[in-house]
Fold this sequence. Notes:
Blueprint: E1 16-17, E2 20-21, H1 22-29, E3 33-37, H2 38-55, E4 59-64, H3 71-79, E5 83-86, H4 89-97, E6 105-107, H5 114-122, E7 127-130, H6 133-145, E8 150-157, E9 160-162, E10 167-169, E11 179-180, H7 185-193, E12 199-205, H8 216-236, E13 242-244, H9 262-278, E14 286-289, H10 293-296, E15 300-312, E16 316-321, H11 330-334, E17 340-342, E18 352-357, E19 366-373, E20 381-385, E21 405-410, E22 413-418, H12 423-427
Parallel strand pairs: 3-21, 4-5, 4-14, 5-6, 6-7, 7-8, 8-11, 8-12, 12-13, 13-14, 16-18
Antiparallel strand pairs: 1-2, 3-15, 9-10, 15-16, 15-20, 17-20, 18-19, 21-22
Helix pairs in contact: 2-9, 5-6, 8-9
Amino acid sequence: MVMVAKQAVNEKGHLLIGGIDSVELAKTYGTPLFVYDLSLIRERARGFINTFKELNVQAQVAYASKAFSSVAMYQVMKQENLSLDVVSAGELYTAIKAGYPVDRIHFHGNNKSKEELLLAIEHNIGCIVVDNFYEIELLKNLAAEHDKQVNILLRVTPGVEAHTHDYITTGQQDSKFGFDLLNGQADRAFQDVYKDKRIHLLGLHCHIGSQIFETIGFKVAAEKLIKKMIAWHNDFNFQCTVLNLGGGFGIKYTEEDTPLEPSVYVKEMVIVVKDLVAETNFAMPEIWIEPGRSLVGDAGTSLYTIGSEKEVPDVRKYLAVDGGMSDNIRPALYGALYDAVIANKMNKESKEEYTIAGKCCESGDKLIEHITLPKADPGDILAMFCTGAYGYSMASNYNRLARPAVVFVEKGNQQLAIRRETLEDLVHLDLPLTLEKE
Ligand SMILES: *Cc1c(COP(=O)(O)O)cnc(C)c1O
C-alpha cells in the first residue's frame, strides 16, 4: 500500500505531525498515543460553515461527538462555533464540563433513559432528536412535571441507506432508529407532538450511513424529508424550521478511498432542498448537518512502539505493536483498512511486507493485514494514519490494557488532552472480596 499523502518529514527523517517530531511525541508521552492535528479539524469545520455561508443558507454544523469525545475536543468545537451531538448522559456531562453552550447541544439516541432526558431538560439543551413513541411519552411527562419547554426533531428512516459507493432505497427500512417515513409512523409522531404546548417540533432528522463517497443518497433523503415537511405545511399549516440531514461524509483512509470535498456534499443537498422549496410557499428551513468522522478522522494519528516480530515462513511476517484492538477495534470489527509508516524511518525504502498485530489475546487482533514498510526493528515507532474517529472513543480495557494518552498538536504547539491510564486507574473501581469462603 502506498502512502496516502506526502507526509512532512524533518532532517532526521522523522514524521512531523502539526510541525512536531512524532518520535519526540512518542518519547514525551509514551505509546500507544493518539495525536490530533487541530489545524485539520479547524479547516474542516470552517469548510462546512463557509459552504453554508456562501450558499446563503441558515445552518448548524454539529460535531457528532461519538467519533471522539473529550473535554478538550469539545472546547475545540466550541471555538469553531460548531453545534454538538451527544448520545448519552456521559457525552452530555462531558459537554457541560467543557462549558459547551447548551443551546447548541443536540441529544440523540434510540433508547434515552428518563434520567438522561431529565439531565437534558434540566440543562435546557438546544434540541432533543426524538427517536420513538416511547420517548415522546417520556418527554411529554417530564416536560409537564418540570414545567419545561423542549425543542425536538423527529428522527425518521427515509428508506434510503447509503454505503460508501452506492445507496439503496427500501420500501421499509429495517433500522433500529427512528420513525418510518413511508409507512405512516412519522405522520403519527407528528400528530402526537405538533400541537403540544411544551414540545416544540422544529423539523425532521435523518442519518443515512457512514463513510459515504457519493451525494446521491443524501439528495434522495433530502428530497423525501423536505417533501414530508411541505406536506405537513399544506395539510396542517405547520411550518417546520429545521431539516437535519445527518453525517456520514467519507474520508481517505487509504489510497483506494475516493471521498468528495466536504463542501460538495453540502452544496448538492442544499440545491435539492432549495429547488423543491422554491415551488411552494414553504419557508426555506435551516439545514443542519452532523459530521463526525470527517471532522476528526484524518486529523488523528496513532503512534505505537514496535516490539516482537514473528515470521511464518512463506506466509507472512508479523510485527507486533504495544496496542491493538483495545485502542482501535475497527479492523477487527469491520475489516477497516489503514495506512501506516515507520515514523523514525521516513527516508528509508519500504521493501518489507508485514502484518501489523496488536498485543491482545485474540488472533483477530490485527491492525493492518498487508503493509510494505522499511525493515523494522524493535523500538521503531509505527504511525498509523486516520485513526481520529471511532478509535479512542471505542477503546476498551480488554486484557486490562491501559487506554492511551491523547495529545493535541497545532503549528508547533502541543498539549496533553487525555492522560494515559495508569495501573492504579485500572483497579480504581474494583472492590475487594468480602464474602467469606464456605
Ligand atoms: C454517527 C452519527 C453521525 C456521524 O457519522 P459520521 O460517519 O462519523 O460522520 C451523525 N449523526 C448521527 C445521528 C449519527 O449516529
